[in-house]
Design a protein that fits this description.
mainly alpha; single chain
Length: 438
Amino acid sequence: MTNVIIYGLLLIALAFFGSPLFSIIGAIALLSFHAAGIDSSAIIVELYRLASAPTLIAIPLFTFGGYMLAESGTPKRLVGLSQALFGWMAGGLAVVALVSCAIFTAFTGASGVTIIALGGLLYPILIQEKYPEKFSLGLLTTSGSLGLLFPPSLPLILYSMVASNSRTAGGSVPDVSIDKLFAAGILPGILLVAILSVYSVRQGMRSRVPKIPFGWSNVGKAMKDAAWEIPLPFLIIGGIYGGWFTATEAAAVTAFYVLIVEVFVYRDLKLFSDIPRIMKESMVLVGAILVILGCAMGLTNYLIDEEVPMKLFALIQQFISSKALFLVLLNVFLLIVGMMMDIFSAIIVVVPLIIPIASAYQVNPLHLGIIFLTNLEIGYLTPPVGLNLFISSFRFERPVSEVVKATLPYVGILLLALIVITYVPQLSLWMVEFLGSK
């Protein structure tokens, strides 16, 4: 009873001092476990194990680096480079938006940051270039979460940590290391960008939007402007798979590189005024994730001890025997999860439940991760809690209903891509095997 009172006081204190919602949810989880008679020592053990995990440091470092990029002049330089490379195409500016937002989201890991930083920059340009308003609104809303499959996306790292804490049907720990998951997401991520680019080019041709003449001088100027930011993706991916450093060390390299470039090279940020503020803002997100992550991992251990996943599998197996049918059911379930939960909560709560069941149906855990994150990426665009819908509504001053209608064609296209990703596992696994053989 004493512990319940203590956690209740903690909850009141968190709310009083304006703590993030996720922190309050974490405290509620602790309180609920006590009320249900669940020993919270499992949560404390998981928090300790989480704090000592070598991969943990990747989350705050990549988040800090992404927030610095968002606050600097990187969005403008990235758009300028993409426009110089793709602006000559029919619908080229729409492709510029897709590519720029995908790369930016990969580094920030937060869809809302992309819509705020790049959406506000690109939306007036799209309208000025005679793109239909509905098309432009749907494009930027969709693009906000388009880069979640590309390294070093925060959801990829979080999925790796949660999955590595789970157990397969045989009781073994799945091999879902961060570097392998990074590799698994590359081709499916390219597929999503490519299929949306084809649709955008088609719309650009139908709307007869003007093209930007290609010029090597424009490309050279744009590359010169972004000369220090262009190497960043190659530094991370090449460094990890070239054996120069681990994924965790890549996070440190990224944060340090971005800090030096944005503060001392471009001078977009001030060391003693901007950097402390950005550190605070980025760590609020990280702290919120860690609180709920510790609680959820304690809950995961409880579910495993009670054999909840195996009981669910036994129930499902009575009705579904084939892997193909299971994947249909899995996608329907994950789409519903994406409609009801944000991506971080869904990863932490749902992944430990589905990994044992999916492994029993011989679904590779890396492939499962890409299926999972693709579904949650679509979930950003679906009511009632699709985060992109509300951020776009706020940013572009449009009713949520109008944003929902604008994104419907994009949701349909992404669902087609999801089918391909689900039933062509080599799309996710080929890059892992290729880089693993090097």
